[in-house]
Amino acid sequence: MTMTQVRSAKAGPLRPEDLMSLEQYARARPQWRGEVLAHKRPRTVQVGPHATWCFEDRLTVQYQVQEMLRIERIFEPEGIAEELATYNPLIPDGCNWKATLLIEYPEEAERRAALARLRGVEDRCWVQVAGHDRVYAVADEDLERENEEKTSAVHFLRFELAPAMAGAVKRGVAVAVGIDHPAYSHAIDPLPAPARDSLARDLT
Q: Does the CA dihedral 88-195-122-107 come out positive or negative?
């Protein structure tokens, strides 16, 4: 069994003992990074030309934590605990999906103008299980990422699913996602099967 399979089989928030030391991670990173990126591929969806949703799970969050520890050379227990406190809320709880929303414009001036037009876009992101109503995101529960002038280029989204919706997804029902902001309206209907199947595994 690969490290990806071992780690993705576990549930619940990450604990310090779930993490590799800096030395262990340095040795494992070349292979493990490839496995994680392959795992993330179906969970990363482009909603229109300028918005990317990266659906998070325990494995993607562990990768982010391990990378932050590596980059910052963090090995003390207090620093590790801080990183876990920051990233653990991104792990889905079995009845929801959690995603990072990235708003991407290559030119700075274009990006600045777009972020001004797109105020409130994070609240207009939705998922829909076939046969059920849309579920709109609960956005940025950790801190406010929008001001009176513009929104942020990065948001964290939670989509809370009713039990009937979760059950339908696990039975193979189609899922759509989209954004219905006045300045940006795009949808993927339905999600490709690999993305839908990966998201179904987030639900208990």
A: positive
Distance CA 204, CA 200 (A): 9
Q: Count the Cβ atoms, other than its own, within 10 Å of residue 201.
A: 12
Q: How many other C-beta atoms are found inside a 10 Å radius of the C-beta of residue 202?
A: 22
Residue 188's H or E segment, with its range, is strand 184-188
Q: Residue 79 and residue 87: Cα distance in Å, rounded? A: 13
H helix intervals, 10-117: 22-40, 58-72, 77-87, 108-117
pLDDT in tens, 100-141: 999 999 999 999 999 999 999 999 999 999 999 999 999 988
Judging by beta carbons within 10 Å of its beta carbon (0-12, 13-18, 19+), is residue 192 exposed, middle or buried?
exposed
